[in-house]
Design brief:
The complex is a heterodimer. Chain A is of the alpha+beta class. Chain A is built from 16 helices and twelve strands. In chain A, strands 1-2-6-3-5-4 form a six-stranded mixed β-sheet, sandwiched between helices. In chain A, strands 9-10-8-11-7-12 form a six-stranded mixed β-sheet, sandwiched between helices. Chain B contains 16 helices and eleven strands. In chain B, strand 1 and strand 2 form a beta hairpin.
């Protein structure tokens, strides 16, 4: 049977959302977008909180980690249980996270509860108390959570990769040591919170069933008491990464080898960025990629090979990985090196390029079609000093990419010699065969 | 404390049709964004796979991407991703779904692709062998090679249930996966992938009349086949406590799961109080067990409570488990934790719960639900499963109101049924200390 494939219809171009963009007197930048749909508001608050370089880094990561676990443990007005009950009453979820660059809050709330949510958030920012007992409890739990995280092969691989790529830079540290967590005291958290969680340089994004002007006025009122003269320092820029020798981390008895590799990538403002995105897609960034076709759909070595470009503010990076059956570790690495070499040195076909381009443009639009998706994107772009005109300009950049551009981007970022591989697996079984393929260091 | 807003019904438009071959079709038009979601729900899941073929429903889901009449191996991905969309499929205890999200210009293409593989799929030994290897690697990465892999969704059913359908490993044993044949696949397809056993939903920026015309054009000529009524998998209630232990060589610290059987989810008014109860017990620092076990007694480092084997309470038929799962430090004993949980449940069952506590719990549940149905895909999936299992896609709009109607008395009565002698308790013990 040979039915005719239906042609694609005419695509309606979505109107760019209008962003209300205001800097309050205290320095907080407020972005608000009206996106009715369900009666909810999505909130994202990014507060710069860079890990210091040098020996204070480890201590900071530990304190920041406990900080995000205890910010909602008490204010001058409410205890942990009252904060939690208030959130429920508002139909709200609120969580805090920290990483090497920032303290972040993510929240969603019933539209009718926005005022209460903003008041609570401001209360947490200006008067979190970090009760001693709650801090001790959170610290003990975090120690347990760290042990569990570090028993997972993907975390082991990620930590080894970051340490290898970013030695000496804050990005090498993602999870604090148990010892440094144990040393955290409530007084450390109060100081960190007071001195560093400040409005200047912070960005609050609201997307949903709101009036932007009214919501911004609500923020100005609720956050008026959040004041500080402290100016944040950004995370120092990450130097371009050279490729490093592959590292093998022994995990005796592992039924799979967890393969990860990383390298430098251009950021969103780099003229070479669109071509790099397309090179990434053709190599391993989506199901139709060569890497998936090769080691999954042809050879069955793995379930989920994937390559992506991440954008931490101090330097964009390629992160790719596949978990492969132990017995086929060397063949899987061989095919991976082959596909990397191919994207770096042989032109892609026009068809591969067009396919990847349509995917990149289409899914960008899909990502803005929900309140949560749009909020995340507006917040991320703002942190990268980009506006929503990016949604119009970036597809144009993708449209202009040629086969030669993809080759150049492939050579710049995906050549095996420019990447740093880490393999976590059963050394006794896989070491010899790996040594036959690549130089290898043992962790 | 005043509530943010009373839960109210949603008002998404729902149009439906049934084709002559039995395919049920839903269209949920919404022009907010120029995107669409297409979902196909087949009424077959892990519970329906035959003995000796554990994991077959899921393996078969993989085969649905290996080609059909007009579409080559993995070309389903090529067409959808090449049109700027994304896609996937997933296998659950009572259904298997396939979906794609696309710019609305590709609506007819998505309909065509789903029709092509409902009409017939291309089966080859090479592709079967390849996907057995892929699924084995999926099981390795999600279960065998990670701490707490499959706990408790794969480990608890054999303790809580007795029949093969309810108790077996739905991911599959490697032996069973390797024993699967092309013949198995072809009879599975014939039996379960008939138009009359499926619900097709299109949600998003579409003209319903045009969509229905495309659906008739592409699906209408698929011959109807006889479809059996969904089997009943119900089991008699437990009359004594069951205890079990699983060993985990990768886990650094112990964990514990407790499970009860809920009433039949078919009767939502009897069932939803259990869904609310799970949240009352475990959602956030003001929930009963979080306050007691984590904040006050500090004997637990992580806890969750939910209904449904795979954690979605409103997508499964009877029997369905009510789960409590905790992680705790090695120096605490399981009995200490079980004792504290029993006290809290019994306190709730005897002292009751205020209107305020139920209302705030429901307020957050509703808000979370709204967040799920805001994207077109969330709407399409919820509507599909409501239509398939309850004949009522309109529950998509009605669920907030139904949750808000749950009373303190019902939650209290539900808690009273979580007894000490009608449950299964499973400890996960770390045995390796390897990390």
């Amino acid at each position: 049977m040979n039915a005719a494939f239906p042609p694609l219809g005419k695509q309606r171009t979505p109107k760019l959302p209008t962003v209300s963009d205001t800097v309050l007197d205290n320095g907080l930048r407020v972005l608000a977008v009206r996106r009715p749909g369900v009666p909810l508001v999505e909130l994202r608050l990014r507060i710069p909180l860079a890990t210091p370089v040098g020996k204070g880094g480890e201590t900071h990561v530990a304190r920041a980690s406990v900080l995000s676990e205890t910010l909602l443990s008490g204010t001058t007005e409410r205890d942990a249980s009252q904060i939690a009950a208030t959130l429920q009453s508002l139909g709200a979820q609120l969580n805090a996270t920290t990483d090497a660059d920032r303290l972040g809050f993510g929240a969603s709330v019933l539209a009718s509860g926005l005022g209460g949510m903003l008041e609570l958030l401001a209360e947490v920012l200006t008067s979190a108390t970090f009760p001693k007992r709650e801090v001790e409890g959170a610290r003990d739990r975090l120690v347990q959570h760290i042990a569990i995280a570090r028993s997972s092969p993907s975390v082991i691989a990620q930590e080894a990769l970051l340490a290898r790529m970013f030695a000496g830079h804050p990005y090498a540290l993602e999870i604090p040591s148990v010892e440094s967590v144990t040393d955290v005291r409530a007084s450390h958290l109060r100081a960190l919170h007071k001195n560093r969680a400040v409005p200047a340089g912070s960005i609050l994004t609201m997307v949903g069933d709101i009036s932007p002007a009214k919501a911004t006025a609500q923020v100005a009122k609720a956050f008026a008491g959040w004041q500080s003269s402290y100016q944040q320092q950004p995370t120092p820029h990450v130097p371009d990464q050279p490729g490093r020798v592959a590292l093998l981390v022994d995990r005796p008895g592992a039924v799979q080898t967890t393969i990860r590799f990383g390298g430098s990538a251009p950021d969103r403002k780099d003229p070479g960025y669109p071509a790099t995105v397309l090179a990434n897609l053709v190599f391993g960034g989506y199901f139709c990629s060569r890497w998936v076709a090769n080691i999954r759909e042809d050879k069955g070595y793995t379930y989920s090979p994937h390559s992506s470009i991440d954008h931490p503010p101090a330097g964009s990076r390629i992160v790719a990985g596949a978990d492969v059956a132990t017995a086929v570790t060397a063949p899987a690495l061989l095919e991976t090196l082959y596909e990397l070499g191919r994207i770096a040195s042989v032109p892609v076909t026009q068809e591969e390029l067009d396919q990847a381009r349509r995917y990149a443009i289409g899914t960008l639009a899909l990502g803005t079609a929900s309140q949560a998706g749009l909020a995340g994107l507006v917040s991320q772009l703002a942190a990268a000093e980009l506006g929503l005109d990016y949604l119009r300009d970036y597809p144009k950049g993708l449209e202009a990419v040629t086969v030669d551009d993809v080759l150049e981007a492939g050579a710049r970022c995906y050549a095996p010699g420019r990447l740093t591989p880490v393999l976590v697996g059963d050394r006794a079984v896989i070491e010899d065969s790996l040594r036959g393929l690549v130089p290898l260091e043992i962790a | 404390m005043p509530l943010a807003a009373p839960a109210r019904d949603l008002s998404y438009a729902i149009e439906r049709a049934t084709l002559d071959n039995g395919l049920r079709v839903l269209v949920l038009p919404d022009s907010t964004s120029p995107v669409i979601a297409v979902a196909v729900y087949y009424d077959v899941g892990m519970r329906s796979e035959p003995e000796g073929r554990t994991g077959f429903a899921h393996l078969f889901e993989h085969l649905m991407f290996q080609g059909s009449d007009n579409v080559g191996k993995t070309e389903h991905f090529t067409y959808v991703q090449g049109a700027g969309g994304y896609l996937n499929g997933s296998t659950h205890v009572d259904y298997t779904n396939y979906y794609e999200v696309l710019p609305s210009s590709a609506t007819e293409l998505a309909i065509f692709l789903e029709a092509d593989r409902m009409r017939s799929i291309a089966l080859s030994q090479d592709n079967l062998d390849n996907q057995v290897a892929v699924v084995q690697n999926e099981i390795r990465v999600n279960v065998q090679n990670r701490p707490y892999g499959g706990f408790p969704w794969l480990t608890m059913p054999p303790l809580l249930f007795d029949s093969f359908a309810n108790s077996h490993d739905g991911y599959g044993s490697f032996v069973d996966l390797e024993a699967a044949t092309i013949g198995d696949a072809s009879s599975f397809f014939k039996r379960y992938y008939a138009p009359g056993n499926a619900v097709l939903t299109i949600a998003g920026d579409v003209d319903p009349k045009q969509v229905m015309a495309w659906v008739k054009q592409h699906f209408g000529d698929i011959p109807g086949r006889k479809v059996a009524k969904p089997p009943r998998f119900s089991e008699p209630p437990l009359t004594s406590e069951r205890r079990g232990v699983v060993e985990d060589a990768l886990a650094p610290s112990p964990a514990l799961a407790m499970a009860w059987r809920t009433p039949d989810p078919a009767k939502l008014t009897n069932y939803l109080p259990y869904v609310v109860l799970a949240e009352v017990l475990t959602d956030g620092d003001s929930s009963r067990l979080q306050e007691r076990l984590v904040l006050q007694d500090r004997i637990v480092t992580f806890l969750q409570g939910y209904v449904g084997v795979m954690g979605d309470p409103i997508d499964a038929r009877d029997p369905t488990p009510f789960f409590l799962v905790v992680h705790y430090p090695a120096e605490v004993t399981a009995d200490t934790i079980i004792g504290a949980i029993d006290e809290e449940i019994e306190r709730l069952a005897s002292d009751g719960i205020t209107e305020e506590e139920v209302q705030r719990t429901v307020a957050r549940m509703v808000s979370r639900y709204l967040r799920e149905v805001d994207p077109v895909l969330g709407r399409a999936t919820h509507a599909s499963v409501f239509e398939q299992q309850r004949g009522r896609a309109e529950l998509l709009n009605e669920l907030p109101g139904l949750l808000a109607a749950v009373t303190p008395k019902q939650v209290m009565a539900a808690a009273a049924t979580l007894g000490r002698d009608n449950r299964a308790v499973q400890e996960l013990r770390p045995t390796g200390g390897r990390s």
